[in-house]
Write a structure and sequence with these properties.
Distance between the termini: 90 Å
Number of strands: 14
Mean pLDDT: 90
Helix content: 40-55%
Oligomer: single chain
Shape: elongated
Radius of gyration: 29 Å
Bound molecules: adenosine-5'-triphosphate
Structural class: alpha+beta
Largest sheet: 8 strands, mixed
Length: 449
Amino acid sequence: MSRAYGGDGGTEAQGSMAGKDLTKPSKLLPRLHRGLAAGVGEALEVVLRLAEDERRTLYLVGGGVRDLVLRRVQVDIDLLGEGPMRSLGEKAATVLGGRWVEHRAFGTVTVEGRGFRLDLAMARVERYARPGALPKVTPASIDDDLARRDFTINAMALALCGRQRGELLDPFGGMGDIAGGLVRILHDRSFIDDATRILRAVRYEARFSFGIEEKTLALLKRDLVYLDTISGARLRHELVRLLAEDEPEEGLLRCQELGVLAAIHKALRFDDELAVAFRRARRARQAPPRPEPYLGLLGARLSPADAEAVALRLTLTKRQRQALEGAADLAQLLPWLSRADLRPSQVVDRLEPYLLPAVEAWALVASQSAAGEKLGHYLAEWRYVKPSLDGRALERLGVMRGPAMGDVLRLLRTARLDGQVSSRRGEVELVQGVLEGRVEMPGAEAGEQ
Ligand code: ATP
């Protein structure tokens, strides 16, 4: 039933479709082995040998095959075989001196150890009781397993051992779609069964600079309403994966164009200005992208009430929520932040409760304004300002431990921020002034007065 391509090349998939050269399937296996890190390669050899001892065929499936064809770095080794995987995983872990974990609900086993991680999945079919429901999982053939997948480019399997070694199963024309640069679903109900595939389609389209195939695109638009059937956790998971792409703004612009964002929540939107801010956010941060800075930017376009609703819909984690809702909330501070008469300490007091990505978002979005300038100062300098004197030094000067100590430290920080003192000596004089009653402490008692 599968459209299989022989291990020695000579296939209908090679050649050029849409003007692009297709990899010969015979080249995939050597390419896989060349591309694997040493630890992974050895572990894979062991698993394949054990599978052959049991006269079983294991396949590389899903994104692994797609990435092999596209010559992208191999990250996931997802292996698929017919029948239970538990004993194979257990044996492999023993031989390799690693660990194995079974995920019963999906019939998968993960084997991992030093420098490797392999996922072994039992071929299965999934039946959806209703749109968006978690599927009911039953053991099945490789062909059936490929048929439950999201897109043709992810529905290929490369046999890694046994008599079929080197053979590519490509029942839906995934090779042709890779060559043509197309994201295509396998059947007309695909998005109804699982509307997370809408976000996945946009993610692959943007990542590979592909296009969503015409009919798939029409169905995607038709089925946007089914996003309502998806749980917050699954929606968040796919959105966070989109945000983890190298250039998430491409996918988000497309989501905006197709109405995907509005289908998630009517107020959620993305535009060219935010795309620019996304790029600048990436340049500003050396660390690998985390979703919070991007969520802050998305929050900058929302009212506080809408941000709260979006956070609820997506069941965001606490930090994610603080980024999104914080940025929405901060919008209301902007007129105040534009005032020319503000002291740095006042700005710090108002901004410190916010999660950094929320402040960073506004510093990017409003960078050209008076408020943006203050946000920039806060991020680059003011938030780091600390008095030179610490608790011990204050104790030596006669300040009692306890709340008074906190008050004096705050006073010193304010004085530093606002330029009233600029040296340790100045701080000592200020503290002495407080202790001798020459300087008034805002709010609280200080020391032994
Ligand atoms: P990435 O390259 O972003 O890591 P991937 O292609 O490896 O993505 P995963 O989300 O890790 O994708 O899933 C592995 C495979 O499982 C996919 O290639 C696809 O075949 C299948 N799959 C994942 N999610 C779905 C889904 N919602 N519906 C159908 N098939 C899916």
